[in-house]
Structures are given as structure tokens and as C-alpha cells.
Design brief:
Four copies of one chain form a homotetramer. Helices cover about 80% and strands about 0% of the residues of chain A. By secondary structure, chain A is mainly α. Chain A is globular. Chain A binds a DNA duplex through helix 1 and helix 3.
Chain lengths: ~210, ~210, ~210, ~210
Amino acid sequence: MGISERKEREKERRRQEIISAAEHVFFRNGFEKTTMEMIAEQAELSKATLYLYFKSKEELYFAIHLRGEAILLEMMENAVNRAPSTEEKILSLLKTIADFKKRYPDYFEVIEYFHINRALLKSGFEKIEESFKRERKNLKRWSDLIEQGKREGLVREDLDPVKSIIVIWLQFTGFLQRFYLICDELKSEFGVEEDELLEEAYKLIMNGILRRE
Amino acid sequence: MGISERKEREKERRRQEIISAAEHVFFRNGFEKTTMEMIAEQAELSKATLYLYFKSKEELYFAIHLRGEAILLEMMENAVNRAPSTEEKILSLLKTIADFKKRYPDYFEVIEYFHINRALLKSGFEKIEESFKRERKNLKRWSDLIEQGKREGLVREDLDPVKSIIVIWLQFTGFLQRFYLICDELKSEFGVEEDELLEEAYKLIMNGILRRE
Amino acid sequence: MGISERKEREKERRRQEIISAAEHVFFRNGFEKTTMEMIAEQAELSKATLYLYFKSKEELYFAIHLRGEAILLEMMENAVNRAPSTEEKILSLLKTIADFKKRYPDYFEVIEYFHINRALLKSGFEKIEESFKRERKNLKRWSDLIEQGKREGLVREDLDPVKSIIVIWLQFTGFLQRFYLICDELKSEFGVEEDELLEEAYKLIMNGILRRE
Amino acid sequence: MGISERKEREKERRRQEIISAAEHVFFRNGFEKTTMEMIAEQAELSKATLYLYFKSKEELYFAIHLRGEAILLEMMENAVNRAPSTEEKILSLLKTIADFKKRYPDYFEVIEYFHINRALLKSGFEKIEESFKRERKNLKRWSDLIEQGKREGLVREDLDPVKSIIVIWLQFTGFLQRFYLICDELKSEFGVEEDELLEEAYKLIMNGILRRE
DNA sequence: GATGAATGAGATTTCATTCAT
DNA sequence: TATGAATGAAATCTCATTCAT
């Protein structure tokens, strides 16, 4: 009983080792240019062993997605819980996404990948759907913040909680992705610092939802 | 003189034919899953001939990018010129981007591709830089609209014209891309219609920049 | 003593279970397309355990061959014993082979496999030789039937007992194998029913050996 | 005009060269154990080039089948035409098949392969069906020989031309295949020479169809 | 200018088999 | 005895790109 437990733990550890090795390679080269050969080498295992733990290259990539998703969700949960007021909750949601993108740019990219290529994923990949479901459930939860803000007289009356949170979520993640792609150029071309621009983004979004104060 | 001119014209015509054939295939299958073979077939030419006109698959894809870019820029130019007021100019800018995404989703995607994969592009690809330069130049021009809005007392005092237009541009294009990826789910999950959400997005953004109305 | 005996019995039982599981899978998919994994699953054992009982995939397949061989030999033995006259003994030999092919087409195929691929079998496979030896010994026995038939004035004088029985054996098994491969086409193309053709085959062979009656 | 013709000829020549190289390897190792790598090496071409001429390993193997089939059909045609009498035509048909098996044992085996594995062939393989159709058409033609024999009072009245020729064809090809698999053992075990056994086979088959002589 | 032919360099995935426990 | 884990060694097929004509 202790034995089978230990075995189980060890198997999970190896799984995690493989994922870590895969991250190393995927993060450097992207999905397409990474080969199972490269991952095997990094993991110091044979290619065949990889297939013992993951049915396909895609599934291995998806394991990384799950890691990233878990981190992001936890960060957002914490952020919302810690913030004292509704306004700060909403703002800290934005800041947390930005923080995630900054601290884990590669996870952010993997999550992007599955969004963008959802249509092309091999059939029989229901796990990704579960992930999207979780995302939608979270959106609903956050829409409660807008709702609450409206009740408090904080948020504009004319906003629809669900619609607006969807727009903000899509906008802001889109902004972050694009922004860091050209961050350096923006600096050299416009003299705009990273943090300044983030602040401008927070300001625009919050202005967009809050009532005249 | 007339002869070489005609030759030139014919060469350009063939180039355009190839690009059109390539569009046909790329739009159906995406960059990775499209083969030069497929394009050659569509163009009724040999693969080798393709290489007479384009140095690589990527460069051919880039020619499509240029077409898309030209269309988008012209649409925006027209939109701004036609709108009578500053506020309407800004709003019509947003609506034009949305219109472009809707009418030319494939061009939109190609433009995305080059933004996202810029880092991985084979070296010796300066043309993409020129394209990005044009984009930045346009951003600067549109920042004048914000500037003008501020002068008119229309736009919030605390906004920086350049920063805010950058944010808005990145946000809104990001929103559009993501939105259409999940448009159907949003409808079935939240009962949200496409146009409603777009309107909510316009509202949020305009609210974000305009002063008390 | 009783213990080791029981152990022995249990081991043999497990061996037979494995063979049965292997049959299930091999019969469905053929030798090449069957994997040890599939057999292990069917047997509810691990792949490694399979190798405890059989040195290789081929040897496991051979165990099936032996089962088939045993059945066939017993059927023939019975047939010859039951038939009252020499002529009927010979004819029942043919009918028994046809019966075996019909009732156990999969065993027939396995036996085929080892005949056809004998040359390619991995070295160190002497058991197959023993099996072939048994086959040849049987041929000799049956040649006695021809001999006897000659003595009885039943069989043509000019036939050599050994040679003719070899020819008949090889011919008739070959006929059966080929016949059932194209049985359906024969019906639809020539309107020939299975039993009619078998009867024609018996007639031709018996005509070939019997004297004018 | 002459140019494109020459090109065509050269392409066909190369195709034939590839087939010849493939024969070399397939004949040594059989279908399964032959790899495209091996054939490429033998042909002094790259693997990719092989796929320029043949869609798959199977199709390349099938090209060999076609060669063998053509040879066999021509040999049989000649044999029947040359033989002066009906009886000799029938006998020479048998002798020709035996001759083919002896001179081209590898082609014989390839033809076998496609008969045996017909069911497993990848879909979209209609060419093999055409080949089988040709075979059935030939059977019909040869059944005319039996018919003619009956008219001449040469062949037994109770035989059905079509059925009997089918039986003879299936029997005799089956006999040849099996016989050469164990030819050596037969010699050492029974002291039976190859030619003797063939003669016995001819005798048995001809006895089976001819009337009292 | 146009192309048919050729290929280098993989890519993913499979599987019989072994071995430490 | 039983097995989970690991792997070496392929195998088929693909594709962007080049080059002689």
C-alpha cells in the first residue's frame, strides 16, 4: 500500500519532469519547431518513453497549458480576495493578468496557442473544451464584480455586466500579447516606457467602466 | 522601351496571379498546412516557377500581408476623412477595424501571423520591419485625433495622445481577434449577440477617452 | 510433490489462457498487425508476463499453430478410421481437410503462415521443423491408403503411392486456401456455388487416382 | 515534340529502373521486411524520389506484380497457341505455369501476396481489382479448352468446363507454391525428385479430366 | 522565363523486447 | 511469478528548396 503509493508518486514526478523538459524546449522554439527528439534529449529519456506518458506532441503541449492555466487562475483568485474594495478588485484583476504575462510570458503564449488553434486541434481533444469552460465560468464570476460595482453606484449604469467583462477580458489579454511583441519598438520609437503604457491602459479601462467621480 | 515595359507589366501580372492563387490556398489551410505544391497547382505553374517570383514560402505569404495591409490602411484613411467630427473620426476608426476583420478575416489573420511570429522569422527579412514602421507612423497620425479631441475639450485631459492611441489600437485589434474565435460560444453560453458585444466595446472605449458628456 | 504438481498445472493453465487470448487477437488482425500489447490486454496480463511464457511473438503464434495442427490431425485420424472402404477413406481425407478449413479457417491460416514464412523465421526455431516432420510422417501413412487401393485394384497402376499422395495433399490444401479467398467473386462472376465447386474438386481428384470403373 | 517524347521515355526508363531496384530488394526480403530506405539505396536515389514515382510502398510492390502478371499471361498465351491438339493445349497450360514458377519464383510470390492480402490492402486500390478481373477473364477462356475437349470426346462428359478449370487452376498454383517450399525436404525424406513429382501431378490432373484412353 | 526532377533532412509514432523490483 | 517502466531501432511519408535544361 505504501509501495503502490510511492510508485504512483514517482510516476507523477517523472511526468512532471517530462513536462518541465518539454517547457524548456517548447518555450525556446514554439510548438511547430520543437521536435519530440529535442524534448527527449532534454528529458534524458528516449522518445518512446515520452509516448508512454503522453499520447502525442499536442497532448504534451497541453499539459503545459494546464500548468499555466492553474497559475493564472490562482493568481487571479488571490488578487480578487485580497483587494478590499470592488474598484480595487476590478483593477487588481487587470494588474494580475499583466503580472502573469510578465512573469510567465511563455505560459501566456501556450494558452494563446490553444485559443488560436482550437479549430485545428485533432479530434478527440475534449480536455481543451473543459479548459475553455473553466474560462467562461470565471468570466461569469467576474461579471459579478461589475454587477456589485453597479449596485455600489461605482460603475456606469449603462454597462451590461457580462458583456463588459467579456470585452475587457478579450481586450486586455489581446493588448498584453500585442504590447510585449512590440514593447521595445514602442520605447525606441515613441519613448514610451512599459509601465507608463500599462498605467495608461488601466486608466482607459477603468475610465470606461467607472462613473464620473 | 515599350517592350521592356510590357514585359515588366506582364511579370507583375503574373506575380499578382501567384499571390491570388496563394491566397486561395493559404486562406483555406493556414500557413503551416499549405504546401508550395498546393499553391503551384492552384496557380497552374510549377513549384520552381514560384521561386522565380518569391524567395521563399514565407515571402509569398508576406505578399499577402502587404495586400491586406494596403486594404486596411485605405479603409481607415477613408473612414477618418469622411467622418465630420473628431469624435466620429475616432469612433469610425474603431468601426473600420471591426469592419475589416469582418470583411477580410483572412487578411486579418495573415497580419496577425507576422506580428506574432516576427521573432521566429528567418533572418534577412527587412520588409516586415518596413511594414511595422508604417504601422507606427499611422499610430502617430491617429494620436493627432486624440490631441485634437483634447483641444476641443472632448477628450479627457489626463490622457496622453500617443500612449492612449497605442493602447486602444492594441486592445481593439486584440479584442477582435479573440472575439471571433469564440463568438459562437459566447452566443450559446451567454446569449450575447455579435453586434451587441461590438457596441459594448465601442461604448467602453469611447467612455474611456471622452470627458463627461 | 502435490504442490509442485499443482503449480505445474496452474502454469500450464495460464499458458493456455494466454494462447487463447492470443488467438482472439491474432485471428482478428493477423500476425503483423497484432501487437503484444493487444494480447496482453486481452489476457489481462502485462506484456512482460507474456515473455515469461513465450520467448517471442513468433513463438506465441506458433503455439496456436500447434493447436490447429492437433485438431486437424485428430480429425483426419477419425475420418480415416471411420470410413469403411479404401475409396471412402481417401475421399473422407479430402472432405476432412475441407471441413477443417471451413470450421477453423483461422487455424488453417496460421498453419499456412508457418509454411510460407518458414524461410524468414528467426533462427533457433526447431519446433517448426518437428511439426513439418510430423506432416511428412502422416503423408507416408496416407500413402499406404493408395498402396492398399492399388492392391485392391481400385487405384490406377501407374501411380506412385508416395508421390501421388504428396501431390494430392499439396494440391488440395492449396486449392482450399485459394478458393475461399475468392469464393464470393466466383459466385457472382461464374454463378458457382461453394459446394458445387468442392464436389467438382473431389470428382477431379478421385477421377485422377481411381481406375476406370 | 521529339523533346517531350524523349523526356517521357526517360521518365519511363527511370520508373523501370526503380522497379528493378525494388525487385532486387523485395525478392530478397519480402514485402514487410523491405524498407523504402533499402530500395532507395539500391536504386541510388533518395527516398523522396521513390515517392515521386510511386505513391506508396504498396504501389511500388504492385508494379512488380504487374510485371509478373504480364510475363505469365504471355507465356500462357504462347503455350496454348503453339500446342497442336486440345489435350496438348491443356497440358501445356499446366507446364507453363510450372515453368513460370520455376523461372520466376519471385514474381510468383508477389502475385501470391496480392491474392492473399487482398482484404487488407489500403482502400483506393482499384488496380488490383482490374488484375483479378483479367485473371477471371482468362479462366473463362481456358474453360473453352475443356469445352472443346468434351466436344472431341476427349474430356469426361461429367465435368463442368468452368468449374473444373477453376479447380485445376487453384489446385495447381497451390500445389506449385507449396511444393517448392518443401521441395528439398521431399527429396531428402522421400527421395522424390522435383521433375518426378511434377510429372505425377500432370498425370493426376490429366487423368482427372480425360476419358478412358 | 519555366519546369521536371531530385533530394536532404527530418517528423511523428510504433513495437518487440528487456530488466529491476 | 508478475509487472511497470524504459528503449533501440525503425518505418513511412513530407516538403521547402535547388538546379540542369
